[in-house]
Amino acid sequence: MSTAPNPAPAPQPIALPVTAVTCLEDRAHVERSTVLDLEAGIQRLRLGPVSALAVDRTLHAELTGEHPATVLDVRIVRTWTPRGPSPATDEDSVLRRRVKAVEEEQTTVERSRDRLRTRLDLLGRLATDLLREIGEGTGSGESERSRWARELDRVDQERDEYGERLRAAEARLTALAAELRATERAMDLSEEEPAELLGHVELTVESAAAGRVGLRLSHLTPCALWRPAYRAVLDGDSLTLETEAMVWQRTGEDWSDVRLTLSTARSALATDPPRLGEDRLTLKDRSAAERRTVDVELREEEIGVLGPTPVLGLPGVDDGGETRVLRAPAPVSVPGDGRAHRVPLSAFTTAAHSEYACSPELSPLVTQAVRFDNLSGHVLLAGPVDLVRGSGFSGRGTLDFTALGAPVELAFGSCDDHGVVRQAEETRDTTGITQRTVVTRTVRLHLSRFSAPGERGERVVALRERIPVSEVSAVEVRLLKDACSPAPDVVDAEGIARWDVALPPGGRRTVTLVYELSASSKVTGL
Fold first, then answer.
1. Would 199 disulfide with which of 52, 61, 205, 409, CB 3.0-4.6 Å?
2. CA angle 80–83–89, rounded 5-degree value
3. By the 8 A CB rule, do 69 and 208 touch?
4. What is the largest CA-CA distance in the chain?
């Protein structure tokens, strides 16, 4: 009879750790590296495990160094692997905790049963020795009837007591075994964990001679993304801005001590140019009624600033239309748990100009606005910013896309000790000779400061109110400076009037703005 030899165990795969990651908007470019001990000839190596989510068509392997070797083929092989037992944690379910408690109690009862069995065995030996002593004493003519009866009664009593305890322990073990089977069956039905899909890299290499060679392997992986985040700390006249990256990844493996690069490239965005359609312009003569009238209307228009035009409905990072690349200054670790992890990128401290501003037409609140220059060494992408003042965390704002060296403006929340009330009036009149329509508008702004007892010093509040700007010569807009109280300090080209109002503790001021719109008789819609 002959037996077949046991098959040799499969060799352990060569570890292929992640060394560098380039995180894109919705995926990651992962780079791995290791050192291979090659033999002369063609050989197939198994490396890993790697994430099963790796994109096969992006897999690229490259040998580094001067060793004469060539990569013939590289591919990813995926297999279902049962999950190993995981250690108990506080987040375990009720069934899993019950199984653990039953197993611990079962171990305790088994030890007690073994001790009881040992005790009963010793009592049995004691009873045997006592009966032999009685027989020998009776044969030699000795009679200690009372002592022998007393010893036999004590041994029988202890044997009955420990026997009852042993039967109780065995009954408890039977009940625990039944409960353990039922609980494990319920846990298997409700918490069955499927097998884990693991990937391994199969690399075919041809080497002219034996030696060591470096391997660099890269591929794309989904389920990873990042977004910028900031933290602004205002301390008197200086501001510290910390730039961070919020990184999420659930690729099936952890990134430990990797070189992290963050990019705004959209690899999934189509590169086809937009289709051009015809845009025909036609001319036609105006009718007599159209020549006699000028149709105008009032419209709201947002004041444009430098920067990209926001696109509604398109999620992602606002990078100004150009791919931006940021790098973490030190190796980072990002677990593959799908949670947000903060990665510090840069920080700088600069002088900041702070003012208290209010636009009563938009909001009755007085807000502390802080302006400073971007000295981070890179562009600031649009993202949320945590605002911190002397009293601690004061809220969360939004930072817009800002070029390097460009000014930045942040609002650090409203001031509860200020109040603004806005009143607007309008009168309409028509002159007799020219039949011009004159609309006069009066806006009164009542500003108050509610100060605590003992507070000193004035506070300057920048009030802003807008004046319409005419785009046609038939409509004129004129600021009545003599009727204003006081006159605006400055009026810019967009029609924004500004006053710098100084308020002492508990002070009140009223600002009056008067302007008129004058239109000829052929203007309609005003």
1. 52
2. 155
3. yes
4. 160
Within 13 Å and on the Cβ side, how many CA atoms surround 349? 6
Chain centroid to Cα 69, Å, comes to: 43
Q: Which helix (H) or strand (E) holds 94?
A: helix 94-139
What's 55's DSSP letter? -
Residue identified by tokens 């009066």 is: 442
- Quote the pLDDT of residue 301: 63
Q: Which residues lie closer than 8 Å to 253 by C-beta, 6 or more apart?
A: 18, 49, 50, 51, 336
Q: Tokens for 268, please give them.
A: 């999934």
C-alpha 347 chain-centroid distance:
20
Rounded Cα–Cα distance for residues 225 and 230 (Å): 17
pLDDT beyond 70 at 295: no
Phi-psi region of 41 (alpha: psi -120 to 50; beta: other; left: phi over 0): left
296-350 pLDDT, tens digit per residue, is 666 666 655 444 444 443 346 777 778 899 999 999 999 999 999 999 999 999 9
pTM above 0.85, yes or no: no
